[in-house]
Amino acid sequence: MKYPLCPLTRKGGPLRLPPSGTLARWLLVVVLAFPASGGSVGADADAEQKRPQEVEVPWPAFPQPENLTPFVVSATTENTFMIDGASLSVGGDRVVRYTLVIISSSGAQNVSYEAMNCLTGERRLYALGRADKTWSKARNDQWEKIRENTLNRHHAALFSEYFCPLGIPTQTADDLRQSLRSGGARVTSRP
Predict the structure, then answer these.
(1) What b/e sequence results for 34-66 when a residue is b if at least 16 CB atoms lie within 10 Å of its CB, and e otherwise?
(2) Residue 38: which region, alpha, beta or left (left: phi > 0; alpha: psi -120 to 50)?
(3) Are 86 and 98 in contact (CB under 8 A)?
(4) Residues 6+ apart with CB under 8 A from 104
(5) Average pLDDT of span 33-39
(6) Predicted structure pTM score
(7) pLDDT, tens digit, for every residue of 38-50?
(8) How far is C-alpha 168 from the geometric centre of its chain's CA atoms?
(9) Are 190 and 147 spatial neighbours (Cβ–Cβ below 8 Å)?
(10) N or C: which end of the chain has fewer CB atoms below 10 A?
(11) Domains of the chain: which residue ranges?
């Protein structure tokens, strides 16, 4: 079987490699041109500097139906998205912490305790809710960039329309609750 894209063959015979000195210089240029991380090193370092040193965060009480405030994510989703107003807080580190409840059109419910850093455009998952109304520590509790995509649109909506308009951290939990009740800010920022 022939592999037309195999790097060591070409139509009409084997590929001839340049002299070893030329090849080594060419490879050095390629290696130096592309960072090993595959990402933007400067942006990661900047986010790391803006990220506060975090202390142990106590988990809130499990959300009660009377404390849930719905918010709009997209006209195309059939899921219901809500924030537990009792768990909503802005810490001394300026990080917004909240309990998110998502109910699917079939009635399945996902509950999570999360955080959002307005300065870095990142989110963090602390814990997941269990059926017995207790918390389970998240396996991956690292900070992650908030991305504008269909799968995690609710995080982008919380960031740009409710919690961090213009990328500026909201001052108090009461301001956040008011933003949720009023339908969010009409001025948006991108995560």
Answers:
(1) eeeeeeeeeeeeebeeebeeeeebebbebbeee
(2) left
(3) no
(4) 78, 79
(5) 38
(6) 0.70
(7) 444 344 555 455 5
(8) 17
(9) no
(10) N
(11) 65-182
